[in-house]
Amino acid sequence: MSPISRGFRRKREAAPAGRVPPGQYVTKDFPVLSAGPTPHTPLSEWSFSIAGGREPKMWTWEQFRSLPSENLTTDIHCVTRWSKLDTTWQGVSLDVLLAAVEYDARYVLAFSDGGYTTNLPVADLLGGKAWVAFEYGGGPLGAEHGGPARLLVPHLYFWKSAKWVRGLRLRDTDEPGFWENYGYHMYGDPWREQRYAGD
Amino acid sequence: MAGTAVRGRLTWQTATVGLVTDETPKVRTLRLEVPDWPGHEAGQHVDIRLTADDGYQAERAYSIASAPGEPLAITVERLDDGEVSPYLTQEAQPGDQFEVRGPIGGYFVWEAGTGGPLLLAAGGSGVVPLRAILRYRSLAGSSAPVRLLYSSRSWEDVIYSSELDLPADGVKVIHTLTRSQPPMWHGYARRVDIRMLAEVAWPTAERPLAYVCGPTSFVESVATGLVGLGYPAGRVKTERFGATGQ
Predict the structure, then answer these.
(1) Nearest CA in chain A to B240
(2) Per the CB < 8 Å rule, is B107 touching A176?
(3) Ranges of chain B with pLDDT below 50
(4) CA–CA separation, B81 vs A139, rounded Å?
(5) Which of B201, B193, B175 lies closest to B117, judged by CA?
(6) Which of A149, A185, B59, B131 could form a disulfide with A194 if both were Cys (CB 3.0 to 4.6 A apart)?
(7) Whose CA is closest to B175, among B183, B203, B165, B204?
(8) Domain membership flag for residue A25
(9) Which domain holds residue A126?
(10) What is the pLDDT of residues A120-131, one digit of tens each?
């Protein structure tokens, strides 16, 4: 039973019912959270690769951008408690990217410029649930928000949507990534408030 | 990398407000009495949960202001359109209760064994976790050399000013006041830029470790500047807060 905080009352408007996971509030800003300096990799040096399948696969920026892409509108939920509604993105579906490799792994470790990593089940990347996004709000994705391209897995807390993503390592076991090593949840479902290990 | 966070379940615990200290007109430090607080490292944060009498709850994260070994304390800046920070900075009094859980975060931390030299760069209330590092350095008897570059709007907005006026041996505090300066001010009077960083930051040959905390624009410019001066990206740890209206 939570103690009453004397004199505290709601000041924010309630979010539309069922729209915002527990413990979250809606913001119109797009806050930036990262653990280190923002990398600036030239597109000429950028690539996206998938390792750990039968054959490694790699796309240059031009090859990646020539893949079929989708426009989508989705809500995003950060573990620091902000949610942002109706964000618009363009990206390449992970269905397209993973279809280019043969594998039987059940997990991936996404890796990024700057050394960031995060772990996800393959099942959460398939079926129209995940993208490598390169446009946000109708323009190129800014570097501070993960550009030139970031993972976009909106049904999980946003730390799973790795900024500056450069590829996936397919793995048989679920190995923790960067924040997961520091006590954040291995899966990170916002609707079950899986913020930290043990939640 | 080795994770340092506790892997066990983090449970909500009742915190009772103890000593309250106004740091500036908009910033207050609250000491929190938490009977089963497991302890924390310098640089970590806590989650706070407030409960209204109608059951409405709001959660936010705040940096820990106290050193490991000291009672838990947070320092909160009031955001006028916020929901939690006006309560914590204006309403809460000694004896009031809410919930905390933590400590959280194991990356933006400093341990005495890590050594230095340290470059700490703070924008506004981003000084809070860096103050925890400074206090811990003293308590731990560390002699790691430290430079704190601290950007505030005006002298009245400087948090922990009396503490920072009397730094420990080996600690140098460099202020910059970006909007207004007191008469006879001889210090920096502009936003942190690459020239200021080149003057203040430890040379890369000394293998410094940098901790940068503040609003996004501050952290972006400082972290990018340090990388430009040759700091390896892995030696620049950042903690940002956007204008999230908390």
Answers:
(1) A33
(2) no
(3) 1-6, 243-246
(4) 29
(5) B201
(6) A185
(7) B165
(8) no
(9) 45-192
(10) 999 999 999 999
With 0.90 as the threshold, say if the pTM is over it: yes
Q: The domain spanning residue A163 has which CATH number?
A: 3.90.420.10
B106 vs A183: CA distance, rounded Å:
8
Task: Tell me whether 0.85 is exceeded by the ipTM.
Answer: yes
Report yes or no on A38 lying in a domain: no
Structure tokens at B222: 């400082």
- When the pLDDT of each residue in chain A is averaged and rounded to a whole number, the result is 95
* Least CB–CB distance from B49: residue in A2, A31, A182: A2
Written in H, E and C, the secondary structure of chain A is CCCCCCCCCCCCCCCCCCCCCCCCEECCCCCCCCCCCCCCCCHHHCEEEEECCCCCEEEEHHHHHCCCCEEEEEEEECCCCEEEEEEEEEEEEHHHHHCCCCCCCCEEEEEECCCCEEEEEHHHCCCCCCEEEEEECCEECCHHHCCCCEEECCCCCHHHCCCCEEEEEEECCCCCCHHHHCCECCCCCHHHCCCECCC
DSSP class of residue B69? Answer: T
Domains of chain B: 13-104 (2.40.30.10), 112-241 (3.40.50.80)
Number of domains chain A is built from = 1
Q: Judge whether B117 and B146 are in contact, CB under 8 Å.
A: yes
Q: How many CA atoms lie within 13 A of A129 on its CB side?
A: 11
Give the whole-angstrom CA distance, residue B75 versus residue B63: 7
Two tokens, residue A168: 């996936």
User: Do B1 and A178 lie within an 8 Å CB cutoff?
Assistant: yes
B80 touches chain A (CB under 8 A): no
Among candidates B8, B98, B106 on the partner chain, residue whose Cβ is nearest the Cβ of A3: B98
Amino acid B242: pLDDT: 57
